[in-house]
Write a structure and sequence with these properties.
The protein is α/β, with parallel strands linked by helices and 245 residues long. Helices cover 38% and strands 19% of the residues. The chain has a single domain, classed as Vaccinia Virus protein VP39 (Rossmann fold, 3-Layer(aba) Sandwich). Strands 3-2-1-4-5-7-6 form a seven-stranded mixed β-sheet, sandwiched between helices. It binds S-adenosylmethionine (SAM). The site of S-adenosylmethionine has 16 residues, from helix 6.
Amino acid sequence: MTRIVAAEVLDHLAPDDPAARRSRRDLVRVHRAMGTRPIISRGWRNLVSPARARAPLRILELGAGDGSLLLGVARSLAPGWPQVQLSLMDRQDIVTPATLAGFAELGWAAQVQVADVLGWAARPDDAAPGWPSPRWDLITTSLFLHHFDGGELDLLLAAAASRCDRFFACEPSRSWLAMAGSHLVGAIGANVVTRKDAVLSVHAGFRRDEISARWPQAGGHWQVRESAAGLFSHCFSAQRRGAAR
Ligand SMILES: C[S@@+](CC[C@H](N)C(=O)[O-])C[C@H]1O[C@@H](n2cnc3c(N)ncnc32)[C@H](O)[C@@H]1O
């Protein structure tokens, strides 16, 4: 299956368009069906040891959407990850005060950055207002990298590699099983936007070592892993050699 990246419907709807709101609600059910929250929690735990997780951690999510997926991840990890500064970056301003309050209840300091990630990648540094260091302990993505191809994807990965010690991505698997699943999201009540985008996402998804092949490896500074995860996902993780586990 050749990789095809095409514009998704949701990306072109206004954030408050009723179809966009509904599609974002659908995404919660899609994530449940894909098992995304446990996949991400496991992926992060594999990158950050229990000892390191107890120390202050700075985490950035690129393409965070409404932040609800990571709130679920935070709820499962917070007891062992008590001092997290989390930055949620998306070009749409769709994280609700209730979601931010959810992070605060867990003791996580969450901040929204409304920005185009390609602009962030092209800037020489990414210090968020009020937060000092441009270095992230972990940069993470979910259903995001697959929006990009060619030079844009290379730019994003290079920017991430130069600004973090660990990177984790959970993306659609470009497999026949995921393709079949994407045609069935109507069965969980998904609207037309979600039904179209699910199919487009799988066509733009990843397989084998496609992300590793683009990850900047000069100098052999990174330990990378890439594999299918669950029935429908494809994960990539990278850890800077020498970063405290
Ligand atoms: C499919 S949603 C995934 C949201 C969330 N990560 C999740 O898994 O639930 C993709 C998100 O990427 C954002 N996005 C797409 N292109 C972007 C860009 N160039 N810069 C910032 N955000 C972008 C969209 O606004 C959308 O919220």
